[in-house]
Amino acid sequence: MQQWARFAILGAMFVTAYLLILAWQKDYGHAETAVQSTPAAVVAHDVSADLPNSQAPAVSSDLPQANIAAAQHTTAAPTAAVNQQLISVQTDLYHLWISPKGGDIVRIELLNHDKSKNSDESFVMLENDAKRTYVAQSGLIGLNGPDSNRAGRPTFEFEKANYTLADAKNATVDGKSAQVLSVPMVLKSADGVEIIKTFTFKKGEYPVNVSYQVVNRSAQNWQGQMFGQIKRDNSEDPGKSDQGIFTLGTFLGGAWGTPDDHYNKLKFANFSEEKLNTDAKGGWVAMVQHYFVSAWIPGHFGTQEYTAKLESRKSADGMNIIGFTSPTINVPAGKSMTVDATFYSGPKIQSELKDLAVGLNQTVDYGWLWPIAKLLFLGLQFFHSIVNNWGWSIILLTVLVKLILWPLSAKSYRSMAKMRVIAPEMQRMKEEFGEDRMRFSQEMMALYKREQVNPLSGCLPLLMQMPIFLALYWVLMESVELRHAPWLGWIQDLSSMDPWFILPLLMGITMYVQQALNPQPADPMQAKVFKFMPIIFTVFMLFFPAGLVLYWICNNSITILQQTLIKRSIDKEIALKQANPEN
């Protein structure tokens, strides 16, 4: 029975390692490294070939499919300019560039997030240059939509080329005062249709409202559909961090959700074969990468939320496109109508994403252990609000988890400590009964019962720690709050490996000390395997996040303290029993 307990403990340890390896293989990318650099000047490229198809023969098939037949457009033909001045918008959170051709967002730099932990450059979220294509496009297609014009994308007129928060105005939004910055762009047709595309920014917020106001001064009814889409090439995730001989990253691809089906991932390879094609009110589409996300959230016709078609596809040149198309907008002659959507491009901050759309916060993907991971993250947030350091927050969280599990683990460690005490008696019985295995088993079970020992109890602490350890792995990998978060001294990034390998070595030492407090296996082969376990796990943890190794060190240290206290308690009980044999 004791041997089965040993095998169970060993098996549990290897299951932990195996699950970590699976998570590791899932999260580590193997794509070729793409160089990310900030160009001296941002150039607007013609991206009309990446728009939805409105059934007009001269328009690219990469446009979303309009639900009405295309006809002769009344909107003026666009200016045939490919390279032109961009509109620069700078807030307290990002620097953003808009192309007048189509009104697409062609570059975003996140000012509060650096390119790497050793760089002062801002993290580039969107860009459109020779090295990488990742842009947010929007427009109007359909019967009279200017983006369905056979001549190509429309070129908007704009008031000025540079906007900052100094241009913002105080306004009341949802009952709260906010600084609002509006960037209008205008397109006019010869027959009197005016289209005003406006980007609205708020100080301290990442979401951008993109609205189209169609003012129909013509003599005919105007019809069209709004679309919003994200176009990305197959380049690797720039959010991945260097891990020595490894490159760390999480899921890179598309995602979408609806109120009924909150979160779905879509690999780039499946954008055509298993492409998205569904209608939803309150849905969203996104491009997900490590720590960051770009998403379109369909909005309203006036004050009414509309049902949008969510779609994904591959363009003719292999670009990955995911987006939405609104229902048909009908604007009678002499009337005006507004349709809008929200675009988000920035860090995956759960509290902000949750308010934008149902399920969008799940782009912070904690895997199948998300309930535990969510609790761990909330605990980390709570302690961080007190100590303002994520490293100390991990330590305090570990202490809290161990205190919660203390009663359960105490029973297991007490049973394991008694196993050490009865080990000489076990050896004596083995020698006495020799080859009589049945008698030996009977006597051993009687001894366990008499001493109140559970030989399988050693598995319980590890089995309890396994889901917590794995969940914390995903928390460290997915929570942008811990990206490049320092602890102390040489640990300047808890989400990456210890550059000096000090923490893994400390983890190995604590694991060895903890193992020395456990009863040793009677089988010599098992004893040798268990002696090598601290070495195996030390090597295994060399390239894992420092925060995860820190958690394991703290967990082992508290376990050592707990086992030592229990051992002393049992030694006192034995001494007292020997001193008073009649009791």
TrEMBL record:
- Print the keywords alphabetically: Cell membrane, Chaperone, Membrane, Protein transport, Transmembrane, Transmembrane helix, Transport
Query: Source organism's superkingdom?
Result: Bacteria
Membrane topology classification: Multi-pass membrane protein
Q: Does the keyword Transmembrane helix apply?
A: yes
Query: One Pfam family name from the record?
Result: 60KD_IMP
Enumerate the transmembrane spans.
7-24, 390-410, 453-477, 529-553
InterPro entries given in the database record: Membr_insert_YidC, Membr_insert_YidC_N, YidC/ALB3/OXA1/COX18, YidC/Oxa/ALB_C, YidC_ALB_C, YidC_periplasmic_sf
- Quote the function comment for this protein: Required for the insertion and/or proper folding and/or complex formation of integral membrane proteins into the membrane. Involved in integration of membrane proteins that insert both dependently and independently of the Sec translocase complex, as well as at least some lipoproteins. Aids folding of multispanning membrane proteins.
Matches recorded under HAMAP family: YidC_type1
The entry sums up its family as follows: Belongs to the OXA1/ALB3/YidC family. Type 1 subfamily.
What name does the UniProt record give this protein? Membrane protein insertase YidC
